[in-house]
Amino acid sequence: MEATKEEVFNACIALLNLKINDIKSSIESVKESSKNDTKSSMGDKYETSREMLQQEINRLEKQLADANQQLFTLKNIAVNKKSDKITSGSYVKTSMGNFFIAVALGELNINNSKIFVISPVAPLGKNLQAKKMNDTFVMNNKEIKILNVY
Fold it and tell me: How far is Cα 123 from Cα 22, in angstroms, rounded to an integer?
């Protein structure tokens, strides 16, 4: 059985929530490591270690902000909206595969179906914009036909 647009949408929400929780957990873990890093007589080593931990926290906080932004973008998609033309929130079946135009999450497997969750600003997302069922376009020297738009 093929995945529905709602199933893909819900899987994206669940994946992002999981990602956000994992990042938050990692931030807490690094902060805990920082607290437990006791100052030794080797002051330079301690400062270097603390700086590395702070850089890791900064990196994780950036990932968290990005994931939260993706979740916000996703939640603002009118998943039940029907459109003949491909826009953000469209679930598109093509001769090359199935795509959900929303945020950049990569490949999902739902009901034994591969669905690529891509951003509308990705090259393929841009090529799909405003196209409709039975339209064709060329990307990377391959002709791609749009089989259905949900």
Answer: 29
